[in-house]
Amino acid sequence: MLSLPDEELTPDAPLTLRNAWVFPIQNTVARRELLLGGALFSIPLLGWVLNMGHRMNMVHRFHRGLPMRPAWQGRGALLRHGLVGLLAFALYAGPGAVLVGVGAWTANGWLVAFGGVLFCAGTYLIPCFMTVYCRAFDIREVLDLVCALRNLRSVGGEYPRAWCYVLLSGVLSLGGLLLLGVGIFWTTVWNWQVAAFCFCHVFRRTDSPDFRRGGVAG
Question: Residue 84 belongs to what domain range?
Answer without folding.
Answer: 26-202
